[in-house]
Amino acid sequence: MAALVLLLAASAQAAPVLAASVSAFAAAPDDPSAVVVRAVGDGRADDSAALQGAIDAAAAKGAGGLVFLPSGRYRISKTIFLWPGVRVFGVGATRPLILLGDATPGFQKGLANMVIFAGAKLDPARRVPFPPPGSVPFNKDIADANPNTFYSAMSNIDFKIGEGNPAATAIRFHAAQHAYLSHMTFDIGSGLAGLYHVANEAEDLHFKGGRYGILAEKTSPAWGFVLLDSTFEGQRDAAIREHEARLTLVNVAMRDTPVGIEIDRGYGDWLWGKDVRFENLSKAGVVISNETSVYTQVGFENATAVKTPVFARFRDSGKTVPGQGAAYRVASFNHGLTLPGLGQMGATKTQMKAEAVATSPGPRAAAIRALPAVAQWANVRALGAKGDNVTDDTAAIQRAIDSHRVVYFPAGFYVVTDTLRLRPDTVLIGLHPSLTQIVLPDLTPGYQGVGAPKALVLSGAKGDNIVSGLGLNTGGVNPRATALLWTAGEGSMVNDVKFQGGHGTNLYDGTRFNPYNANATADADPTKRWAGQYPSLWVTDGGGGTFANIWSPSTYAYSGIYISDTQTPGHIYQASVEHHVRTEISLNRVAHWELLAPQTEEEAGEGEDTVSLEIRDSHDILVANYHAYRVTRTRKPAAAAAKIYNSHDIRFRNVAVNAESGVGLCDENGCATFLRLSKYPYENAIQDVTSGLLVRERQFAVLDLPANPPPVAPSVFPAGARVEKLGDGFYSLGGGAVDAAGTLYFTDRRHQRIYSWSDERKLSIVRDNALDPINLAVDGSGNLLVLSSDGRDGSVYSFRPGSPDTEVTVIAATPAADHPRAATVLPVNWWNNGEFKDQLDLQTYQFTTLAQMFARDMALPKPKEYVSPDGSLTLPAYRVFQQGPPDYRAMRFSDALDTYGFTTAKPGQRVFVTNGSENKTYSGLVGQHGAITDLKPFADRGGESVATDGEGRVYVANGQVFVYAPDGRELGRVDIPERPLQLLFGGPGKQTLFVLTHHALYAVRRP
User: Fold this and answer.
1) For domain 378-516+528-581, which architecture applies?
2) Mean pLDDT across the chain, nearest whole number?
3) pLDDT tens digits for 864-899?
4) I need a surface site. Which of 74, 371, 505, 910 has the fewest CB within 10 A?
5) Cα angle at 979 between 978 and 983, to 5 degrees?
């Protein structure tokens, strides 16, 4: 008993009760551009108009602005809208508090937000298709924040929800890169949640009471969310309830609530926690749903639990993972698709290493260091710098650094022409990395030609430096430039820093910089060479420390983050590294680093050959909640997201490699975002170049890379079957179809050719003047039906193989009609998960599940169709979304254009299809006009293609070819040398399984 008392006392010390707020900005920083809120601030007067007016005034400056909210209590009665790029900071000896009074009208039913992170204001004449729910009073003309909402933030402000407001949330936190919340306490009381939605990164948040601390869906751009140094206490249902929010938690405590983290029914999440503390959780530390899905990846390291008898509870199966007594430490917990090694496919597993402890460890140091007090900030303007985008401020800034430990940059563009050299203890502070930039002009002498890297900012060697809230811009014609050369020590920090020059760069006049020519193949200025500079952030020569909330998208640098020649521990917490030509993140001769929530993005222009993550000659590296993404517009295959050279002890936890995303559609009514599927994600998650082994699984929870991975023998089903390469050298195959005789037809879109294969004639070119052929079908008379991406809504044409090349019939879309004898042409693979639209039912607070959304949308008939020349096939006219200008440059997307190929069936027949957003294969009943109903899950694998043989066996392409019995039992696997994308049975008697990959055609022949 004495040991238990001691343990509980120590535990209370490790996870303290919500402490009183401490102001992070005890005085207002000196910035003449900031708008200061002028309001009563006594907690009684309604200050809504004053708050909104200040935010509107800051937004009117162009690309956002700064708002200072002095100490006080600000009662509001309606929703406050925070526009893109506006940052609101509480200033004063005590934190200001935004208060929702008891029983404020409008906050009793459904969802009601005190503050909404909003999108850009639209022309009032244009309709907003999806205004965010929960504005009070509801405003249909407010655009939701979206993947292009950058830089918005709130800091050092507390929220309190009074009694009688059960629908209230403090903040709808829905935005993209460089949005954040920090230094805030949420006294939720009777309310629904402190945060609804999450975005990007948050630090030092404390949630007290409420139904939930955080209630979240998929983030706006589907990137990860990192929460650091935060606490939850006394929530009625759960500290966090969410799905697909890609949560990364570091140094987070949850206590006195039934559940720590609850993943919604029917969904998964990429959930990773380090140094998470659970105390007095009666039901479970974490509730896991959709437990067999590859999109459910849950991991913890060094978690501690006290009076939490169940660490993990599985909603669907009812299984539990019990704790280890009254108090225990969880060294590791992992659930999800687990890979036994390189070159091998995975299986779902749950693993925990835990032990009872007699005393709970004391609180760890904060992951994010506090900035020095404002009183210590030396204003660089007062010390001679101008920040006017014209004056050379190099000397003035260097003098400030040499004479003051802490140098503060008010908003401005500070031109420099030589390296700024930090002393070992220098701290550089800005409050807005878009409005506060250090800029290196193009063609700066000393940064030209061949030579060693020359930094824009150089840290102190082994120093204790901090760089926070600044934008660093090295221009486009400075080949020796590296924006931040970091050799500081383990205690140093880089936080809230944007490496300007690429996506999301705002100029001095507030306009958005565009790094593309008309075809997005290079900069409009040919002197600005993509990948012509050293890396933007270069950590080297024993450098280390903490790097949080980093955005590095400059296309002119050859890498966004490069770490080399160091064994000093380093921690990356949320980094968006995007739009580079060669590599996004590179490690070379590195040890003892962890990359938590790194996200990369490859654009269609510069990213065709980019490697997301490259690790060379390194060891002891943790990569967790890693998201490697290629945009929907991509048109070229790429081998692997991560490439590993001569490295070992590399631990991957929670990996997502994908290429589906929202695309914008605008018409006379406004703009909306819809989810589309790309055919060109990275083919593999990881390529170990040294061993030659690949990781085909693109979504998985656990993989360890040892020094010498063993070779892997391929699997073939049935025994004795032969995998034969029929042809290769293609750019990217797809759209295959088989005629009645078993002849295979397929396209190579890039080369605008249509090929055929038969055992008699071998490989043949059917047409080499086909315009943008995407997918094929063959009607009962042997005519090829070709779906083309040409035209605003795509086009369909037909010809007979072997006919003169001049013969082609264009088929127009006609109103859908009944065709009793015709088969329907359907996409074989789909992506459908309502990604960018809220799925919360405001009456029940339940979410529409992925399966429900898929079933709902698949059941919709299509109003128009294309009919083959002989009337035996109908191809529904799926809605086409256009991205880009309405000319040859536009990208066009539809369910029919996005799929790897078609399948055909008559109404009343069952058909197999795959849904990549669930990684599942379904069977469904074909109805009229393309509708598919009565969907039944068949296999927990799916994504690329599915086909059935004459005996009813089902073959699913998902990294390899998985074979199932008609009743769903897994029978075996066929390993293909390249990633299989489309499966079709053809050849004599249709006994041959044709496998289309990007670059080669294979056949699987049974013995």
Assistant:
1) 3 Solenoid (2.160)
2) 93
3) 999 999 999 999 999 887 776 666 566 778 899 999
4) 910
5) 110
